């Protein structure tokens, strides 16, 4: 809701006066246009429900790209945040703070690793993982300085920094932002032979999403990740799993890699780690990898701050109970069953694991964005990706009835789209 005390009248000149239009027009005027949001203006949220500035409620079927895995304003997380806000929020890493070690110990334990490098955004975790891999390559593997390469997958999404977009295939994300960072080789996702062919003596890491999220929730062939794991071990290359979107319960396991019994050398985590409250990301690995960093070689003023660390500790505790992973597995099976029944009725294909689904719709029924607008009009918030694909990723606290209701809305939106063609 606009705050009358801080909104000068001139800001509203020429703007339609209904609340939603005002908010969108102000966004349009003052916020950089690097997103094209659906025309919904959120004002509050609880659990799986978002309420807009007019009081209309929407079922959240995106969960902030998995950052809200535990639902909006989960009481345990909010209680931790309130308590820590009243105690200590930031001292920087110039001093020790009592919340950081318990968080790192808990997260390392969850991952079965020795150490944690705390950062903030997901992209920072990826950047940090790349730096750690290059430093490990130079200091431990013996690659000549500046000669390291990292093998990545085509159609990856790892974030938006200059280095990360350097190995993206998304022209919209790249165009105009060069020069690009060298040192990356891209192979088709799921093709272990191509990946093996790309690895040479200067390869320090394979950086991969176990399930590609932004690409449309692409699950690799069954032997892919086990073969990547074996190859990395044989060639002395770090396997880095970007579990920023796929991890922390989303696929029905703590980590998506578990579906293939694969343990990477390095986990990159983010999004849900911050409990849907603040940015908190991490690089998690054993001491022989993270130990390559020494004072001054890497850092972040806010990385691992007491507020984030307290919230992260609560999040890890919640994941240790296993209930969110089980919910995601059980309710995810229900979600996928319901979606598969729509194949041939406007849906072409459904992919994914747990409460994470990529749904290709018949392109003749419209774009994914048009379907998302129609769904929003019916009270369900989801997000398109690449043309005619929708992704569904509700908070893991969603109920079977709520899933049924959302899929009923989706089926009706498809029927409407078919009628209006
Ligand atoms: C797999 C993956 N890695 C990295 C990122 C970047 O995270 P952030 O937007 O927090 O920088 C994302 C964001 O969607 C992601 O899905």
UniProtKB/TrEMBL annotation:
UniProt-listed PROSITE patterns: AA_TRANSFER_CLASS_3 (PS00600)
Superkingdom per UniProt: Bacteria
InterPro entries: Aminotrans_3 (IPR005814), Aminotrans_3_PPA_site (IPR049704), Class-III_PLP-dep_AT (IPR050103), Orn_aminotrans (IPR010164), PyrdxlP-dep_Trfase (IPR015424), PyrdxlP-dep_Trfase_major (IPR015421), PyrdxlP-dep_Trfase_small (IPR015422)
Involved pathway(s): Amino-acid biosynthesis; L-proline biosynthesis; L-glutamate 5-semialdehyde from L-ornithine: step 1/1
Cofactor: pyridoxal 5'-phosphate
Pfam families from the UniProt entry: Aminotran_3 (PF00202)
Catalytic activity, EC: 2.6.1.13
Swiss-Prot/TrEMBL GO biological process terms: L-proline biosynthetic process
KW Transferase (keyword) present: yes
Keyword Zinc-finger: no
GO molecular function: identical protein binding; ornithine aminotransferase activity; pyridoxal phosphate binding
Keyword annotations: Amino-acid biosynthesis, Aminotransferase, Proline biosynthesis, Pyridoxal phosphate, Transferase
PANTHER family: AMINOTRANSFERASE CLASS III, ORNITHINE AMINOTRANSFERASE, MITOCHONDRIAL
Family to which this protein belongs: Belongs to the class-III pyridoxal-phosphate-dependent aminotransferase family.
Protein name: ornithine aminotransferase
The organism of origin for this protein: Mycobacterium dioxanotrophicus
Taxon lineage: Bacteria, Bacillati, Actinomycetota, Actinomycetes, Mycobacteriales
């Amino acid at each position: 809701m606009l705050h009358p005390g801080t909104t000068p009248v001139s800001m509203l000149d020429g703007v339609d006066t209904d609340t939603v239009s005002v908010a969108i027009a102000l966004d349009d005027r003052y916020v950089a246009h690097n997103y094209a949001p659906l025309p919904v203006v959120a004002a509050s949220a609880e659990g799986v429900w978002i309420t807009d500035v007019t009081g209309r409620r929407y079922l959240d079927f995106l969960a902030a790209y998995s950052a809200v895995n535990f639902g909006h304003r989960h009481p345990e997380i909010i209680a931790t945040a309130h308590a820590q806000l009243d105690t200590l929020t930031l001292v920087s890493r110039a001093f020790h703070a009592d919340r950081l070690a318990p968080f790192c110990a808990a997260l390392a334990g969850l991952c079965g690793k020795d150490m944690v490098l705390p950062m903030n955004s997901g992209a920072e975790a990826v950047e940090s993982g790349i730096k750690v891999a290059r430093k490990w390559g130079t200091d431990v593997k013996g690659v000549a300085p500046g000669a390291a390469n990292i093998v990545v997958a085509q159609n990856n999404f790892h974030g938006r920094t200059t280095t990360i977009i350097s190995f993206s295939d998304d022209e919209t994300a790249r165009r105009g932002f060069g020069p690009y960072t060298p040192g990356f080789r891209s192979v088709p996702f799921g093709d272990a032979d191509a990946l093996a062919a790309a690895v040479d003596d200067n390869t320090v890491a394979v950086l991969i999403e176990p399930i590609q999220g932004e690409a449309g929730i692409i699950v690799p062939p069954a032997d892919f990740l086990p073969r990547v794991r074996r190859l990395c071990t044989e060639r002395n290359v770090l396997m880095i799993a970007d579990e920023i979107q796929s991890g922390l319960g989303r696929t029905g396991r703590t980590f998506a890699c578990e579906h293939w019994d694969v343990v990477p050398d390095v986990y990159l985590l983010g999004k849900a780690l911050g409990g849907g409250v603040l940015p908190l990301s991490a690089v998690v690995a054993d001491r022989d990898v993270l130990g390559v960093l020494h004072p001054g070689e890497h850092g972040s003023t806010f990385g691992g701050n007491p507020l984030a660390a307290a919230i992260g500790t609560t999040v890890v505790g919640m994941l240790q109970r296993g209930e969110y992973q089980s919910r995601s597995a059980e309710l995810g099976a229900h979600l996928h069953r319901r979606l598969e029944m729509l194949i041939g009725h406007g849906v072409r294909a459904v992919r994914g694991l747990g409460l994470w689904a990529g749904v290709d719709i018949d392109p003749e029924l419209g774009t994914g964005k048009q379907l998302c607008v129609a769904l929003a009009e019916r009270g369900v918030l989801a997000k398109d990706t690449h043309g005619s694909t929708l992704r569904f990723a509700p908070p893991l606290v969603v109920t079977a009835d709520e899933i049924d209701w959302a899929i009923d809305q989706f089926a009706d939106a498809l029927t409407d789209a078919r009628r209006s063609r």
